[in-house]
Amino acid sequence: QVQLVESGGGLVQAGGSLRLSCAASGRTFSTYAMGWFRQAPGKERELVADISRSGGRTYYRDSVKGRFIISRDNAKNMMYLQMNSLKPEDTAVYYCAAQGQSGRYSYWGQGTQVTVSS
Question: pLDDT digits over 71-84, tens only?
Answer without folding.
Answer: 999 999 999 999 99
